[in-house]
Amino acid sequence: MTRYLFLLLVPLVPFVQTRFDAVVGTRDLAEGRIYLRTASEVRRFTPGFDNLMADLYWLRTVQYFGEQRAFAPDPHYDLLRPLIDITTGLDPRFELAYRYGAVFLSEPRPAGAGKPAEGIEVLQAGARNLPKSWRVRWDLGSFWFVFMRNSKNAADVLIDASRIEGAPFWLESLAGSFLMGDDRKASRAIWQRQYETGWGAIRDNAIHHIEVIDALDARDALTAAAARFKEANGRFPRRLSELVDAGLVRAIPVDPSGTPFDYDPETGKAAIARTSSQWRSKYE
Amino acid sequence: MNVSSSTPTPALSFAHLSKSYAVGFLARQRRAALTDLTFDVARGEVFGYLGANGSGKTTTIKTLMGLVFADSGEARVLGLPLADPAWKARVGYLPEQPYFYDYLTPREYLDYVGRLFGLSPSVRTERANALIEEVGLQDSRDVAVRRFSKGMAQRLGLAQALLNDPELVVLDEPMSGLDPIGRSLVRGVILRLKREGRTVFFSTHILPDAETLCDRVALLREGRLVKVGRLDEILERDDRNLLEVLVSGGDLAGIPEASRTGRMGERATLQVTEPELLATLEALKRGGSRVLSVQPIRQSLEDYFMKEMGKGGGGPA
Amino acid sequence: MSGLKRIVAVAANTFRETVRERVLYNLVFFAVLMTASSLLLGNLSIRQDEKIVKDLGLASMDIFGTFIALFIGVGLISKEIERRSLYPLLAKPLTRSEFLLGKFAGLCFTLFVNIGLMSIGLIVTLLATHHRADPALLKAIYPIFLGLILVVAVALFFSSVASSSLLATLWTIAVVVAGRFSDVIRNMRQVSEVPDWLVTALYWAVPNFRNFDVKNAVVYGDPVPVVALAWMTAYAIVYSAVLLGAARLAFGSRDLH
């Protein structure tokens, strides 16, 4: 029946779409555009709709971030900061935009834009515009510590935050642990609190960081066990299973993503596997 | 069927045609619109398709014209199956209450229709002009159809149905919505077509129209064929044709009492049979009465109709 | 051959209808908009007026065109059925497929004329404000036209399937809007918990009007590769053909009453 012939064309639709995406898929990702570079320009064109425009720009920010992360072959996130600034400029009390925006900017690639200094700037602007928000300061302190390794600034901000009405009691003690110098313990505490106080993407992010810390702890335990093995046997184990045979560990651990650790019998050091989602170059 | 090759194929033939429509929520039920319709329309005849509103006349015609599709059975047009597009150039069709594009003038519309028939520009213009004259739209030939009355639209509909010089013309309620002048115009067109040997198949629920025009009629009731036949066969079965005579003044003494059926002052009506007529007229002349009119009171289609339709009547009028 | 002639006759009548129904009046509005915007925005935004005139011109071609394609397109078949104006036509030697194609072609031609006149308006505005009439604008206008053809095909499809023009309008609007957000659909893969195969299926099924959006690239003078234009043309043709085929299937066996 000729009238059913058109069905033969149906598979061509995804085919052509795929070809098209292959040719130009990166077109609008390579360089998106924003018309108006500052919030005051936007405001001039949309009198009386500042908050609505802020919402729209925030949606656009999230879209842009997701698109760059997912599809750009070489994501640069150039527009991320201006978009966040326009959003928060239009609605300076948009707490969510500061906090998520800072996460987008600060997280190392490929999860984020890898620009922690800009993330800190966004949170600092948030702290200025939201004098009563301990959460923005809590994020700021955490980011100082986690991304910039600056315990002093982190502790200062957290102490500042702890004086705000309604701030949780643990802010001050956390600031103390920053100053004591046990980074991993402080990190774990930060992400634990982020998990407890956060929601959505912030919470997912915290879980991820806690898993990384778990992985690091497990890695260090393995390395320590290998060292004890050497004390007893005069050599590093050839493979990790010898540690189990020697009764030094109960079983060969895997990291929270389920990936076995790498092990170097020459140096006796365990390492997070590169294929693991917990792997980060800075932990090498 | 013993149709020999010399017998011309009928203009229209229906064989066990049935059609039902989906009705109700989600169209789960079907209501029969036509049931087992079988009859032929011969070439050259004017054929009346009669029935009350909702009896399936329009459904039959739409099935012929390919607007709806029959469930079962078949119909042939000029000997060709419905699916064969070849007959379409030889047939004219006037839909019920036709609607034409608001923004076109009759001339433009007929030109458009002519192009669909593949007529050359000169033929299109020539025929369009002639038909506009014939249906009496010459004063409105360049007026957009949106300003047309219902009757004018009906006339334009007739014109477009005749543009291709059709052998068979199918008209759905051609008289409806027309004033008396319009009706007589349509009657004139139908008679012209008959004179030219064309076949006319038209539906109507206005019985006198059928009575004056049709060679044969089919009666339809609730989607079923009740009767097909020559009008006189159907109507004069119980023969005794009565005539009504309207007279004024004079002495009616010479007229049998039984014939006098009414009296209003000077005027009186008499009913006589055909053989009695001459004698009656003689008697009236002697009595000094003036004869105003003599009219046949045949058993009219209306009467027949009512009888056939039974106690239930003809459905919604 | 005679089939083609009938298609052309239907198309010509459809074009005449849109002209007589004053569809092209939007062009007047467009002209006013272009003039006003070039006068106002030229003063408002230093060095940006050329860009803004182009942005506005291209955007209104897209928007007006989509409105025309959508609302006229939806009426193409369903209005003819509701008013019964196609009854006498289908009794002529005109098949339903020819009728569909003629309607489709007629509206596409209207949109072509519409876009052509708008383009001239845009060029005149650019010249009048002492800018160059950039031929690269054609690279944005052509895809807009392709997109409009696809909108007509979507509208025609729903017009042939739906029992009323209101339903057809709603469905067409839904699909066109969804198609304009197809990049959001694609990004859903990353963001939400919707299974990948579903997102992919949706992304492929919805007509992707984002494919035709190269306005920004052109305004900023970015290259638009010819390959991209070719694939986008292929997409418009293939998808429209599928829709017309489906419309024909649905309309071809439909009872008109």
Secondary structure layout:
The complex is a heterotrimer of chains A (284), B (317) and C (257).
Chain A: H1 12-24, H2 27-30, H3 39-45, H4 50-71, H5 80-90, H6 95-106, H7 116-129, H8 134-148, H9 151-162, H10 170-180, H11 183-197, H12 200-233, H13 241-245, E1 262-264, E2 269-271
Chain B: E1 12-23, E2 29-41, E3 46-51, H1 57-64, E4 72-77, E5 80-81, E6 91-94, H2 106-116, H3 121-134, H4 150-162, E7 168-172, H5 180-195, E8 199-204, H6 207-213, E9 216-221, E10 224-230, H7 231-235, E11 242-248, E12 260-264, E13 267-273, H8 277-287, E14 290-297, H9 301-309
Parallel strand pairs in B: 3-8, 3-9, 6-7, 7-8
Antiparallel strand pairs in B: 1-2, 1-4, 4-5, 9-10, 11-13, 11-14, 12-13
Helix pairs in contact in B: 2-3, 3-4
Chain C: H1 2-20, H2 26-44, H3 49-83, H4 87-90, H5 96-128, H6 138-161, H7 165-180, H8 182-191, H9 196-205, H10 215-219, H11 226-252
Strand order of the largest sheet of chain A: 1-2
List SSEs of chain A in N-to-C order. Answer: HHHHHHHHHHHHHEE
User: Helix proportion of residues of chain C, in percent?
Assistant: over 70%
Q: Which spans of chain A have pLDDT < 50 for at least 5 consecutive residues?
A: 26-32
What is the CATH topology assignment of the largest domain in chain A? Serine Threonine Protein Phosphatase 5, Tetratricopeptide repeat
In DSSP terms (H or I, runs of 4 or more residues), the helix count of chain C works out at 11
Topology as H/E string of chain C? HHHHHHHHHHH
The low-pLDDT segments of chain C are: none
CATH superfamily of the largest domain in chain A: Tetratricopeptide repeat domain
